[in-house]
Amino acid sequence: MNKNELIEFLQRQVGFLQGKLDEALASVSSLTLANEKLTATVDELRTQIASLEEVIKGKGAELNKEKVARQAMRRLQESPSERQSKPAPSPSDDPSEKKPEKKHTNNGAKRKTHPECEIETVVVEPDSPDFRPEAATFIGECDVVRYVMVPMRFRKIIYKVRKYVQDEKIYKGSAPATPLLNSQYTASFIAGLAELRYLHCMPLENAVEYFRSHGFDLDKGTAQKLVSKVKVQLENLYKALGQAIVADNYICGDETYQKVRLQVATPSGRKIKKGYIWVFVGMTTGLVYFFYDDGSRSAEVFEQHIKGFSGAFQCDYYSGYRHIGIGGMSGIKRLPCLQHIKRKFLDIKDNPKAQGIAKLFGLLYHFEHKHRIGKDGWTAEDHLQWRQRYSRIMLEKIHMRLMAVKNRVGVPPDDLLLAATEHALRQWDEIPRIFASPTYKLDNNEVERINRYISLTRRRLTIGSHTGAEAAALYHSLAITCNRCGVNVYDYFCDIIDRCAAWPPNTPIEMYRNLLPDRWKPSQK
């Protein structure tokens, strides 16, 4: 073997040994990682064993106390001074003939009695016109419990429902009905939960804790069932809200996301997704309509819910809205959002040209806020003339600046200022429509503020399912509409829950229109 062959042989040996060394190092690394996991598991098991030992010690102490108490009781019973003679059994005391006592259960669950509540007792007499107390014989009474919330007080009202027999006919009083069958909770509880959860954006477990801190021990599961079951009774009212929104002549719209838990994991293994909730705001009526369709953000969802609308729709430049004014939506006039256009230039902080264009858009707001309809005798006609005068001059200046930016030479296609300029120019023909009416807004900031209710909620909780997101859309719609119309949310839900529960399911949707917050009047009780 010559020198070169020897060197080549040694190099192969070194390569082979280096490969073996790498495999050994990888094996050592995996074993170290496995050892760390096992160590962490052992530590966790030790912690659990220690906690179990403490629990067992506590249980042992309780058992010892119970054993000592039984022994003391046995010694007391065996004492001659404490013995009592057993009564002689009667023939009727035959154990075989004794019927077991029937347990009073609620589908297997024991109802809470809530002794922490303020208790009020009301005697309920029969209200039948044929009933005459002087001719009737009292045969008994039964207790019917109703829980009432008067923010923030809780009352337990026990209705003593009296029964009489008169002319071989039984008469009895009737306690107030509840919106849900086999439930002791009145509409006031659902109203309180709805206000805390869907107006003040408080997670349901926090709302339950809030109830508990004010003296009422409500289970989270009970709260969830109350809200979800009452949602079914409000479905027709929600449909009436959707129809009333598209009957408006001016709508602002947007969409935002909420975290939704999935029942089945996605192929990537995720069980939480971004589910999009859409919102329409009737700028004339003040109604707010949230809707959710399995979390989809597609244009089909928007087109399905905007059917029948003819008027002005104000929105950002999301692609789902770009079919507005075409085909089946030819009767809709799109209004752009100047705030979204302006923000593109504001975000380019280090560019003087971008900041100059943003200031010109800001001047549109400056002139707009100089006058307000209804203040100091300023009419809608005055405002329309003022708008057309200042907007014509300002829009010409802005357009000149935009065209100067677009016609620059040697600008790369990914230039931020060029992108912001093209975004504005694509909507330029639609911008003058805003100033063709005295009531159109310069932007859809009203919708952005309303979407804050959703964004505040998603920071604190994840909705448990698509069904839960649909319920959230319904309750948010009614609660936020009340807030915009100046209606007390609690009083509104207390009234409409009882009224919707009393109406049969086949009641025409049109009858629910007068129950929406912009037309609602409290029922006379």
Task: Please give a structural write-up.
The chain has 525 residues and is α/β, with parallel strands linked by helices. The chain folds into three domains: 118-176, no CATH class; 190-212 and 219-230; 235-512, no CATH class. It has helices at 3-78, 187-198, 204-213, 220-233, 235-246, 299-305, 338-346, 352-368, 380-406, 416-426, 445-460, 466-485, 489-502, and strands spanning 118-124, 137-150, 153-166, 169-172, 250-261, 272-282, 288-292, 311-314, 332-335. The strands form two sheets. The chain has a five-stranded mixed sheet. Strands 1, 2, 3 and 4 form a four-stranded mixed sheet that branches. Helix 2 crosses helix 13. The longest helix is centred in the first third of the chain and has 76 residues, at 3-78.
Strand fraction band? 5-15%
Give the SSE string: HEEEEHHHHEEEHEEHHHHHHH
Number of helices: 13
Quaternary structure of the protein: single chain
CA radius of gyration = 36 Å
C-alpha end-to-end distance: 114 Å
Quote the average pLDDT: 87
Strand order of the largest sheet: 7-6-5-8-9
Strand count: 9
Main sheet overview: 5 strands, mixed
Total discrete domains: 3
Provide the structure class.
Answer: alpha/beta
Which terms would index this structure?
525 residues; alpha/beta; 3 domains; 5-stranded mixed beta sheet; 4-stranded mixed beta sheet; 9 strands; flat
